[in-house]
Amino acid sequence: MKAPTFQLTHVTRACDYLVVGISDNAPLDLKIRLSSHGLTPGSVVKLVRKGRWTPLLIEVRGGLLAISGQEAEHIQVSSPH
Amino acid sequence: MKKKFFLIGPPNSGKTALFNALTGMHFKSTNYPGVTVEQRTGKLKNYPDMELTDLPGLYSLNGQGIDEIITRDHILQNQQSKWINKNSDISTTGYDGIILILDSTRLNKSLYLALELKSLNLPILLALNMHDVATSRGQLVDLTRLAEFWKDGIWQGCAFRDDDIRELEQRIQEFNPKRITPLPFIKNQQDLEKILLPLNNADSIAEFFLNSDKMVNAILLKKISPDNISQRLDSILTHPIWGSCVLVVLLAIIFETLFKLSAPLQDGISSSFDWLSALLKSHYPPSDFINFLTEGVIAGVGSVVVFLPQIVLLFGMIILLEDSGYLSRVAFLCDSLFKRFGLPGTAVIPLLSGHACAIPAMMSARSMNQHSDRLTTILITPLMVCSARIPVFSLLIATLIPRDLYWGPLSYQGLTMLGLYLLGLITALITALLLKRVAFKSSARNLLMELPSYRTPRLKNLWVGLKNRSSAFLKKAGTIIFSLSLVLWFLSYYPRPALENGSAAASTENSYASKMGKSLAPLFAPLGFDWKMTAALIPSFAAREVMVSALATTFAIDDVESETGLTGLQTKIRETYPLSTIWALLLWFVFAPQCISTFAVMRRETNSWKWPIIVIAYTGGLAYLSAWMAKSFF
Ligand SMILES: Nc1nc2c(ncn2[C@@H]2O[C@H](COP(=O)(O)OP(=O)(O)OP(=O)(O)O)[C@@H](O)[C@H]2O)c(=O)[nH]1
Ligand SMILES: [Mg+2]
Q1: Residue A15 clears pLDDT 70, i.e. is over it
Q2: Which terminus of chain B is more exposed, N or C, with fewer CB under 10 A?
């Protein structure tokens, strides 16, 4: 089974802003948990810490949010044009 | 007629701060999300006919945490009872309004909850708290415009400003929502889902956010500027390397100060007890009653009260860590480490507060979303070194290790104390791993945690926290520890067979306590515990500190002439027991089952006696084994 995915896609050159993508097969309660923190498909968030040794740290709607594990595993790094 | 209001809002928006300001109560209000995990009710200070209930924070009505569900059930269930009983006595079951507290600095996030609740037509007074911070960061809200969106009532202010609080009281007093359309009656889970389902599909979520964005754009005359200070601090404190270094240095400082700063205060308290004891002895002829006062009360209870400065210091430092906002960063940094042991980083918060007392710590695990994470955290919390063990640890460490022995800038005493805390933590983590792998077969829930902005810790929060804690400690010393010391003194003092010269034998050797202790001796002999230690082990399940008072009392009875006070007690212990026994006793207390009330709360939180019994057997076994190992190897 594929893990439920929550994707962040880079949009700017500096790579510090990301667009949130949530895969369709993500379970409902994950979607609800994410959305109650302001993470909905298409919303733009700021990347604060990349999250290799620590959880991922992003700025969402003016506040800091730490995400780790599955939720953050599927970050797509598209090379900026 | 009494009016009832509920205080709700996202976590960390200042609900409890406002509740305390309005009711004059002193509940814990500090800077991380998920502090309040149960409801609390109080009356408005200036309007006693108004009743206020402070509830746990929630991000959305669809939240999954136990704390969020408590709040959701409060507002949904009571809403109906009010409506159903509309024509009878409305206020006995329902409520008259919700005060929705939002953090002004996070409007574009928190208005989501406001709109979600509004869509259910609940009677809501909208309170924009933390106005002081928002203003200092340049935000300006157009209240007239906001009133067009929100007709039921609005307040904007700061929880710490008296004028603002008076104004909020006024608003609550006047609050009279136009219309309340009742929700359908909730009989079962399906009814509940019928209400919640329209709120949690992708379209409605998107719409709530869209509308909240529109609202924010319309009402903000000036937008809030970024929190530069928090950003700068976070660039260091959340850094995997620098952040961890800071954490380690902080821990070292905490344990250093614990011994260094408290030493002079302890000596002061100790010598005033000695002085009192000497005064009694010099003014009154020797009698059983005077002996009881000097040996039972002053030596016994006094030997525990001496540790008040250390306890206050530890609490003070924990409060500062919490209120500054740093605690959440610790959870952030520990997440990947904890995950290896099957726990999410958020477990740091209950575990750290377990150093104060396991009871609120186990309750604070309610804010953890996944059941097995929460259960595991509850079960391992008793392995964290709680403050009741500080007197035992400090006494024994000071007995074992000289005060002026240093390793670089760090004293060996502080390092040993830190070592014992770490030993508790490491054992807790390994236990968590076993539980998660073997019993629950699940991994840690992923972290999804808000980090609060940094704030200068509030002196009032520090003061209230310290006052609550020290009075709880002194009350315990005056009640449980006092009565147990009294019983132990009696058991150690009597019977007193007359000697040949007519005076009574001044020895505990033939006392009841000695008989009791000796009857258990075979069990504890492998650990090197003599009857004095053994007799104190049983009452120490009610309060650990009794071990200290029991030793102090029995030594005082046995040797009336010897040096009294803390140093006297340390010398006595050192002379009486081999080092290996003292180490064994120390390790016994790192693991020994916690006090009875801890297990009563564990039963309540886990809903069965099974877990408390398993934990008692497990920690008891660990304590015995480690004490035995210390006895054998030192
Ligand atoms: N500057 C400022 N700080 C505030 C104000 N209100 C609350 N605080 C601080 O914000 C933090 C959170 O306050 P709490 O009262 O614990 O918030 P809560 O909503 O009860 O939080 P939970 O119980 O975790 O949901 C504490 O550190 C308070 O001192 C305010 O109006 N201004
Ligand atoms: Mg609270």
Answers
A1: no
A2: N
